[in-house]
Amino acid sequence: MSQSFITQAPESVLVLIDIQERLMAAMPQGVRVRVVEQIKILITAANTLSVPVVVTEQYPKGLGHTEAELKNCLKEDVNIIEKTSFSCINADGFLTPIEESGRKQVILTGMETHICILQTALDLQQQGFQVFVVEDAVSSRAKTNQYNALQRLRNAGVIITTVESVIFEWLGDANHPEFKNLAKLIS
User: Fold this and answer.
1) Can you give the pLDDT at residue 158?
2) 136 in helix, strand or coil?
3) Is the residue at 1 inside a domain?
4) pLDDT per position in the chain (187 positions), as tens?
5) Structural domain of residue 131, as residue ranges?
6) Which DSSP category does 102 fall into?
7) Which residues are catalytic?
8) What is the C-alpha to C-alpha distance for residues 3 and 174, in angstroms, rounded to an integer?
9) What is the distance of C-alpha 62 from the center of its chain?
10) Is 14 within a domain?
11) Does 2 reside within a domain?
12) Which one of 1, 32, 36, 41 is at 20 to 30 Å from 64 when CA atoms are compared?
């Protein structure tokens, strides 16, 4: 199968990495608001287009749980995977729903870009997945770390994209039955 550089809903899995209460509190205010809003849009699109969602929490005893505003958007059957490893690949149960889905495109969102996003993206790529990092749906406490991680990921062949690009790629055509509903989210 040749790789497409365009996300495709039937091939995608959306991953929310460590968007937790105490990590969010460490982010600059504007970044917090942007990340939550953008990820809510992606969750809505994923739910609408039957794209599976996987959620991780880094040491929730210390960092709290997934932001309530995002958790409320998730389907009830979404499994939240607790981890202590920085790469999600090393967390028990992380790869299972991705492999069981048979999908090969993994769309990463969350925090922090230069730690868990970076390590997970590179490990997933080594496992043969095509990895997309959603630039406007990831964050780091410091811009320098964010920019460095995105550059490293680009250099490694990970595709850097945006929420709007992902949604329009998933839709593929303005005649898609969900086009009007989802286009409203980003206009």
Assistant:
1) 98
2) strand
3) no
4) 456 799 999 999 999 999 999 999 999 888 999 999 999 999 999 999 999 999 999 999 999 999 999 999 999 999 899 999 999 999 999 999 999 999 999 999 999 999 999 999 999 999 999 999 999 999 999 999 999 999 999 999 999 999 999 999 999 999 999 999 999 998 6
5) 9-186
6) T
7) 18, 83, 116
8) 24
9) 22
10) yes
11) no
12) 41
> What is the number of H-type helices and E-type strands within the chain?
9, 6
List the alpha helices (DSSP H) in 90-162. Answer: 95-101, 118-126, 143-155
Q: How many domains, in total, are found in the chain?
A: 1
Tokens 């210390």, located at residue: 62
In this structure, the strands spanning 53-58 and 80-83 are: parallel
Instruction: Please indicate, yes or no, whether the overall pTM of this predicted structure exceeds 0.90.
Output: yes
Strand pairing report for 12-17 and 80-83: unpaired
Q: In CATH, what number is assigned to the domain containing residue 130?
A: 3.40.50.850
Domain membership flag for residue 101: yes
